[in-house]
Amino acid sequence: MTTPASITPEELPVLPVRDTVLFPGAVMPLPVGRESSLALLDSLEGPEKLLGVVAQLDPRVETPGGSDLHGVGTLAKVHKMVRMPNGNVVAFLEGLHRIRIVEVTGLKPFLRARVEGQPDSEDQPGAELTALVRNVQELFRDVVARSPQLSDDLQTEVMNIESPGRLADFVASTLPSLNTMVRQELLETFSVRKRLEALTNELSKEKEEGHSERAGRIRRHPERGRRASQEGGRIRDVGGGKEGV
Buried b vs exposed e over 123-149: b needs ≥16 C-beta within 10 Å? Predict the structure, then answer.
């Protein structure tokens, strides 16, 4: 079986990113403008084009060194680079798996580091893990149904993910309400069970906030709320009749 350790180069160029966390399995367009980061992208050769993507501790630092980075990032593959008229580049990256920074080996013309692949810790499969998976899937579908920012297709996509670890990373990378600190904590959580538990808490909070916002709107506009309730009742009556045929 292919493991993170077996496909991770011992040394990698490292791309520091601000207010961004790339998860394994995610594909992200990333605007790149710093001179050192452009030099890194220009140096990539061959079909693989692998690099480490690691979030900065402080996004305000213009020239980050090893001490300015989180210790865990993501091995990524560059699929495509588009050069913009202003000289910046948009790099389309695919996260492959977690990596741990062992030692920074170079700073110029760009960061390089010795790294090691970081696999998920083994969680005993069973009823508890299965229940966590189902709970995260259902909570995520509820959030998607209520969010104008998220495509309804995500409801189907999340149900088709079989790997619990892949599911956790998919939800963590897709949920727009998660801030950078929470995403980084999830990236650094190697236990799949603990990632799913943390996501259950985050999704439950978001669901509760959605209910509170809706209740607030109804209190401010009670007539609109009554009309919506009456219309919903009529729709349910029609739907129930069809289901009963």
Answer: beeeeeeeebbebbbebbbbbbeebee
Q: Quick one: tokens of 50?
A: 């692998």
70, two tokens? 């989180």
> pTM for this structure?
0.83
Q: Domain 127-239, what architecture?
A: Up-down Bundle (1.20)
**195, amino acid identity:** R
Structure tokens at 116: 């090691």
Q: Residue 20: which residues within 8 A CB-CB, separation 6 or more?
A: 28, 30, 55, 180
| CATH no. of 4-117 | 2.30.130.40
| Residues 112-145 pLDDT 10s | 999 999 999 877 788 999 999 999 999 999 999 9
Residues of the chain with pLDDT under 70: 1-6, 210-245
